[in-house]
Specification:
The structure is a homodimer. Chain A has about 150 residues and is mainly α. The first copy, chain A, is built from six helices and two strands. In chain A, strands 1-2 form a two-stranded antiparallel ribbon. The C terminus of chain A is likely disordered. Chain A binds a DNA duplex (30 and 30 nucleotides) through helix 4.
Chain lengths: ~150, ~150
DNA sequence: GCAGGATAGTTACTTTGGTAACTGTCCATT
DNA sequence: AATGGACAGTTACCAAAGTAACTATCCTGC
């Protein structure tokens, strides 16, 4: 009978790796700011692009709109972002980081980059090929894929 | 101010890739057998090693004991495995796949392997370096890491 | 200008997963 | 052989995430 070794099965390995990396990464911002992953993604996206709508955040950070909605509310309660109803289309609202939000972001970014650099350093010469392979997989899977957040 | 582009940030990319791969992989066994990921892992581990305890399954498949417990119950209800209390240590129970369980496994494995092969084929020459890099990251992270399933 | 479909975002409901507490068993020390 | 700690596994409780239904607004065609 054909068999399969779970520990060398690619989907399993990718999942395990991603969850360990996520967990370790939480240690980077968790202790200081107690953010969830969705909240971090919203923060990072807004800092990257400035004012934008919830929908645009979701598209850029691969999150379902309910996840975005809840993360936005959490950040709003923390006074890290403000909403402003668009005049042109009153269904949308522009989301903008406050000074406090930007300040926290500025604190987290160097640590996030250091964390990433440490990951890559551990890979040494294997880092570049990994990134290339990642790009290939993303190109193949993300485009036509039934992404959870695709609509 | 230092900034960070989420779409090229490694933890984000790993998570997104893993979740897309997982989702696509579910299509391999989902429609025919309606398994969850934890159930699939328990099935695969038992098929790989024969009779073993829930604890051992968890250790091998990187799952928390409650997740294992629930997956085992689900497979038991489906009559895909049976339990037998160990005589030597009556806290443990040996878990063994039934003929029905093995049959389902045998149906799934070729499709799982084909799915993995398709993923790797998409990578072409980048496949080998990816696997090497994965091993490196696993070696660095999984050993000393605060794995979710670690005590 | 209004009827119907589409769209942005929220909320209700359900499923899933983790933490912590519990049960039953084992084992080491006394 | 009694007691206390460790350990396998389950369960109760809570937090996170997805689906579907809802609200409010927009836009198109009549």
């Amino acid at each position: 009978m054909a068999t399969l070794a779970l520990e060398s099965f690619l989907p399993y390995r990718l999942n395990r790796l991603a969850s360990v990396v996520s967990l370790k990464f939480r240690a980077v911002y968790g202790p200081h700011h107690d953010l969830t992953v969705p909240e971090w993604r919203v923060l990072a996206t807004l800092a990257q692009f400035g004012t934008m709508t919830a929908k645009a955040i979701g598209a850029h950070s691969a999150m379902h709109k309910t996840k975005v909605s809840r993360a936005v509310r959490a950040l709003e309660e923390r006074r890290w972002l403000v909403r402003s109803r668009s005049e042109l289309d009153r269904r949308e609202e522009g989301l903008t980081l406050t000074a406090a939000g930007l300040r926290s972001y500025a604190e987290i970014v160097p640590r996030a980059l250091a964390f990433e650099a440490a990951l890559l350093a551990e890979l040494g010469p294997h880092a570049a090929p990994l990134l290339t392979a990642l790009e290939r997989m993303e190109a193949g899977l993300l485009d036509d894929a039934p992404r959870p957040e695709r609509r």
